[in-house]
Write a structure and sequence with these properties.
The complex is a heterodimer of chains A (417) and B (90).
Chain A: E1 4-5, H1 7-18, H2 22-41, E2 46-48, E3 52-59, E4 62-65, E5 72-75, E6 78-85, H3 87-93, E7 103-104, H4 111-120, H5 136-165, H6 170-219, H7 221-232, H8 237-246, H9 252-255, H10 257-264, H11 266-276, H12 279-333, E8 338-341, H13 348-356, H14 362-368, E9 384-387, H15 400-416
Antiparallel strand pairs in A: 2-3, 3-6, 4-5, 8-9
Chain B: H1 3-14, H2 18-37, E1 41-44, E2 48-55, E3 58-61, E4 68-71, E5 74-81, H3 83-89
Antiparallel strand pairs in B: 1-2, 2-5, 3-4
Helix pairs in contact in B: 1-2
Classes of the chains: A mainly alpha (417), B alpha+beta (90).
Chain lengths: 417, 90
């Protein structure tokens, strides 16, 4: 414990475990570290199995202030030797703390809440700090009590545990739970009142609009003006359905009125019916409405498809023009493309430091060369990477916001790796 | 320089087989592991010193979520370069 092992002792230990002569062992240790030293002096990175990796990193010269005289001085740059222990070695050394993990601290956990948790468990010590001896029978009855009394208290404990692992969710959970039922209830209550067809049209119409939304809006504003209405109003979709089923080519607007009447007729009936009319009639009408709904949905789908296909054509034109535009941009930018080569000494952060004055912007080099680099921490030497222009990603080493953004990005990339 | 090349070079300099050197290297790594686990420092003249250091637990703020996190304490193997090598590297 906390003793210093010298070369002599080290050689003894090695000789013992390998049953080799001490002379050979000493020669080996000296030779090994002489070789490693020489490789490091030559600027090479040395990896030793079971021990770790030695590497040289250049520390740049930097400006400072002479504390005594107050003048500006320059601290010379130097080569720093860094050592990264082998995974097995690091784990073996950290065995005492291996069971711990990084945990999120719950900021919402106050002293009062902790006191509440304490109350749920009987204290093992009295006020003078002496251990309370509890008889065996009592402890068993205490367990029973806790199991009886706990239902109210247990949730509190669980929620606290959750917050320790996850976040300060408990406050958020309550509203979301109440919100969810509301949302689900609404359509349920709507259905019987406003008939099935509205719901089905809404669903299909919205889905279709979502699928084709952009082209529809982009291409034919006049037609799309009708679209939202058909989705919102339950009176209009039906007319459209008949219009389209009877005559696909005709625009929907003129035909709408005629079927409108057809739909409005049942509506007043609906107002009288509940007490007077027979249930069987109601059922048949419900079936009819359902059929109407399906027809309307189909019609809306068809119209949207027609519009979308029209829109697709014009969109393609737009795409091609865009492609031409982007081509011209690329053509303009091409001559200015900077590339550099990754070596065992020069990694992404080194390049970032070279071109952007901060190692943090390696993320953008990685982003630019994602196709070439599978692991940003281990880029094979010889890889030629494109250095994106600083303006492309808003790179500015002097801007703390830009730095922070890059740092966050690097955190995300390394986390997702 | 990777492990394979290192073993080869050392074996050539010592006039021994790579298998012998590998065995010795394994033994060296084993000694380092057991001694450092017991918080002993292993020093190698004119190269440096392997010393286990305890890092205390600390609170960090995760840059992504902005949440505070408690990092547990740990023991890490540190390496302190000897003055001789440091001067040569400069």
């Amino acid at each position: 414990m906390y003793s210093k092992i010298t070369l002599v002792e080290l050689v003894d230990l090695i000789a013992e475990s390998t049953s080799t002569s001490k002379r050979v062992c000493e020669l080996f240790v000296r030779e090994l570290f002489a070789t490693v030293s020489q490789a490091l002096i030559d600027g090479e990175k040395v990896k030793i199995k079971g021990i770790g990796t030695f590497a040289i990193t250049r520390v740049k010269s930097r400006k400072s202030v002479n504390v005594a005289q107050g003048g500006a001085i320059e601290i010379a740059g130097y080569n720093r030797l860094t050592f990264t222990p082998d995974k097995a070695l690091a784990q073996a050394v950290n065995h005492a703390f291996a069971q711990f993990e990084t945990i999120t601290i719950d900021d919402a956990l106050t002293d009062e809440k902790l006191a509440e948790i304490d109350k749920t468990y009987p204290s093992l010590f009295n006020e003078e700090g002496e251990r309370i001896e509890t008889p065996v029978e009592e402890s068993s009855s205490g367990e029973d009590q806790s199991s009886v009394a706990s239902p109210a208290e247990e949730p509190a404990i669980i929620s606290v545990e959750e917050t320790v692992h996850g976040s300060s969710e408990p406050t958020l959970e309550a509203p979301s739970e109440t919100a969810a039922p509301e949302v689900t209830e609404e359509p349920v209550t709507d259905q019987p009142e406003s008939t099935h067809d509205e719901v089905s049209i809404d669903d299909v119409g919205l889905k279709a609009l979502e699928a084709f939304g952009v082209p529809v809006h982009a291409v034919s504003p006049s037609e799309t003006q009708h679209k939202p209405m058909t989705v919102e109003n339950n009176t209009e979709p039906e007319p459209e359905s008949t219009a389209v089923t009877h005559d696909d080519a005709q625009p929907a607007a003129p035909d709408q009125e005629e079927p409108d009447d057809g739909f409005f007729r049942p509506a007043p009936r609906n107002a009288y019916t509940p007490t007077q009319e027979q249930i069987s009639r109601q059922k048949s009408r419900k079936n009819l409405r359902w059929l109407w709904g399906v027809l309307a949905a189909l019609a809306v789908g068809l119209v949207i498809w027609l519009i979308a296909s029209l829109g697709g054509k014009t969109d393609k034109d737009g795409d091609s023009s865009l492609a031409v535009a982007s081509d011209s941009i690329v053509a303009e930018a091409e001559p200015a493309v900077i590339t550099d080569t990754v070596t065992s000494q020069i990694v992404l952060s080194t390049l970032s430091d070279k071109y952007y004055d901060s190692p943090w912007f390696w993320v953008y080099i990685y982003e630019e060369n994602k196709a070439l680099i599978s692991n940003p921490d281990n880029v094979p030497p010889g890889t030629v990477v494109v250095i994106p222009p600083a303006e492309k990603y808003g790179i500015d080493a002097k801007d703390p916001k830009s730095l922070k953004k890059a740092q966050y990005k690097s955190w995300e990339i390394l986390k997702g790796k | 320089m990777d492990n394979k090349k290192l073993v080869k070079t050392v074996a050539a300099n010592m006039g021994r087989t790579t298998a012998d050197v590998e065995k010795l290297l394994d033994a060296l790594a084993g000694v380092l592991r057991t001694r450092c686990s017991e918080m002993d420092t292993v020093s190698i003249p004119s190269f440096g010193m392997f010393e286990p250091r305890k890092r205390n637990e600390r609170v960090i703020v995760s840059p992504g979520s902005g949440k505070r996190m408690l990092v547990p304490p740990k023991v890490v193997v540190g390496f302190k370069v000897s003055g001789v090598l440091k001067a040569k590297l400069k």
